[in-house]
Write a structure and sequence with these properties.
The chain has two helices and nine strands; from the N terminus they run ααβββββββββ. By secondary structure, the chain is α+β, with helices and mostly antiparallel strands. The protein folds into two domains: about 60 residues, no CATH class; about 100 residues, Cupredoxins -  blue copper proteins (Immunoglobulin-like, Sandwich). Strands 3-9-8-5-6 form a five-stranded mixed beta sheet, with no helix packed on it. The chain has a four-stranded mixed beta sheet with strand order 2-1-4-7, with no helix packed on it. The N and C termini lie far apart (about 110 Å). The structure holds copper (II) ion (CU). Copper (II) ion binds next to loops. The site of copper (II) ion has 7 residues, from loops.
């Protein structure tokens, strides 16, 4: 009995001590208004400056980046000089017209007769200039304006079997 009372007393003492620590920390943590006023003012003025900085830089940037809007959409046939049908086969391309003049805008209607292919249009330095999926059951539209003369190439961009690498067709673009 005596032991139990001693343990109880010690527990009570320790709990009080912990409570005191909590009260001390809580009392010390109360913000004193006057300490923070200059800091708050500085932060708010910084925030206001940052806001105007964003307004001044981001609005012109957005306008500049969106200057090409509206992008030519899916119903762009009327704007194109030629509408060309492209069909992917294992392993060749069938392209209804392969000779164009510089400055001409071509709308490629790309489909596939068998499996998924990728219609990739490369300029004569083999730099990719336009690409779209060639899929069975879909006609995907890709519009491109040839701005340089030369021999462009259509390459398959999606591995489609043994002779995938052989799916290369030339497209000639001649100066006006
Ligand atoms: Cu292919």
């Amino acid at each position: 009995m005596v032991q139990q009372e001693a343990v109880w007393l010690i527990s009570l003492l320790l709990m009080s001590l912990i409570l005191l620590v909590f009260i001390f920390v809580y009392a010390r943590s109360q913000p004193r208004q006057e300490d923070y006023t200059p800091l708050k003012d500085r932060a708010y003025s910084l925030r206001t400056k940052f806001f105007w900085f964003l307004v001044v830089t981001l609005i012109p940037t957005a306008l500049y980046l969106l200057r090409d809007l509206p992008y030519p959409g899916a119903n762009a046939e009327t704007q194109a000089d030629h509408v060309v049908d492209v069909t992917g086969y294992q392993w060749r391309w069938e392209i209804s017209k392969t000779e164009f003049k510089v400055g001409e805008t071509v709308l490629f209607r790309v489909a596939s007769a068998d499996v998924n292919h990728g219609f990739g249009l490369y300029d004569q330095n083999l730099r990719l200039v336009a690409q779209i999926q060639s899929m069975p059951g879909y006609v995907n539209r890709l519009q491109y304006t040839f701005d340089k003369p030369g021999t462009y190439k259509a390459l398959c961009m999606e591995y489609c079997g043994t002779a995938h690498h052989g799916m290369i067709s030339d497209i000639q673009v001649v100066a006006r």
